[in-house]
Amino acid sequence: MRKKFVAGNWKMNKTIAGSITLASELVRKIGSHEPPCTVAIAPTFIALDSVREVIKKSPIKLAAQNCHFEDDGAFTGEISASMLKAVGCEYVILGHSERRQYFGETNEIINKKVKKVLSEGLSVILCVGETLNERESGITEKVVEAQVRGALNGISESQMQHITIAYEPVWAIGTGKTATPEQAEAVHLFIRNLIGSLYSDSVAERLLIQYGGSVKGSNAKELFQMPNIDGALVGGASLKVDEFYQIIQSTI
C-alpha cells in the first residue's frame, strides 16, 4: 500500500515573515501527531531557512521549487542542489510547467537537474503534463511519455525510489479547471505502466504519482479515491492553511 504524499508549492508568494506565519499556522494545525500522509511545503528560496526552523520539530518536510544542474559557478540568480541540501531541503520540484513555459526548460535540462538532485541525496518531484491544445489534439500520452522518458534518461532502477512523479495537466493549473478523477486516473495509470516498461513492475508499483491542477479541499477526496492517484502537488490552495489541511485529511 503506497503512502500518499501531499506537497504544497507556494510559488512566488509570501515574504519571509508571511512564510513564517503560514508555516507556523500549518504546524499548529497538524500538531505533533504523524499526519495521514507525507506532507511537504516548498516556500521561496529566501524563506527556506526560516521555514525550516518553524517545521523542524514537526512531521512536515521541506522542499524547494527548483534548482540548477551545476554545483557552482557564474550562474547569476541560480541555486544549487548542494545549497538546498545544506538548508535542510529533502525534496526538489523539477520540470514544473511554469518552468517549461516561462523559462524554456527542456526535457534535457530537466534530466540534468534530476541527476544533480539525486546525486546530492535529495528526492525529486518530477512534473509532467500536457497543454489544453495537446489534450484536444489527442496527444496527451505522447507528450507525457516524452517528458517522462526525457527526464528519467540515465536514471537507474535504484534511483527511482527517490522520485515522485506529479501529473499536472497544464490547462488545469491555476485556472480553476480540474481534470475529472477519471481523466486524471487514466494518465496516472498510463505513467505507471510506462514506468513498468522502462524499469520493472515492482518499481512501477512503488512509484508515487501525485495529481496537480486546481486541487482543493472540495475535490481532493474524489481524486484520492482513484487507485493510481497517490496524493497531490498543490498550488494556490496550499497558501490557505484550512484548505491545505483539508486536502491532507482527504488522504484518509
Biggest sheet record: 8 strands, parallel
Low-confidence stretches: none
Percent strand equals 5-15%
Per CATH, the superfamily is Aldolase class I
The number of helical runs is 11
Characterize the quaternary organization of these chains: single chain
Q: How does the helix and strand content classify structurally?
A: alpha/beta
Radius of gyration: 17 Å
Shape: globular
Approximate helicity band = 40-55%
Q: Overview of this structure, please?
A:
This protein has helices spanning 16-30, 48-55, 81-86, 97-103, 107-119, 132-136, 140-151, 181-198, 201-206, 217-224, 241-249, and strands at residues 5-9, 38-42, 61-64, 91-94, 123-128, 163-167, 208-211, 231-234. By secondary structure, the chain is of the alpha/beta class. It has an 8-stranded parallel beta sheet with strand order 7-6-5-4-3-2-1-8. It contains 11 helices and 8 strands. α7 packs across α8 (181-198). The protein is globular and about 45 Å long. It has one domain: TIM Barrel (Alpha-Beta Barrel).
Keywords for this entry:
single chain; 252 residues; alpha/beta; TIM Barrel; 11 helices; 8 strands
Strand-helix topology:
Blueprint: E1 5-9, H1 16-30, E2 38-42, H2 48-55, E3 61-64, H3 81-86, E4 91-94, H4 97-103, H5 107-119, E5 123-128, H6 132-136, H7 140-151, E6 163-167, H8 181-198, H9 201-206, E7 208-211, H10 217-224, E8 231-234, H11 241-249
Parallel strand pairs: 1-2, 1-8, 2-3, 3-4, 4-5, 5-6, 6-7
Helix pairs in contact: 1-2, 5-7, 7-8, 10-11
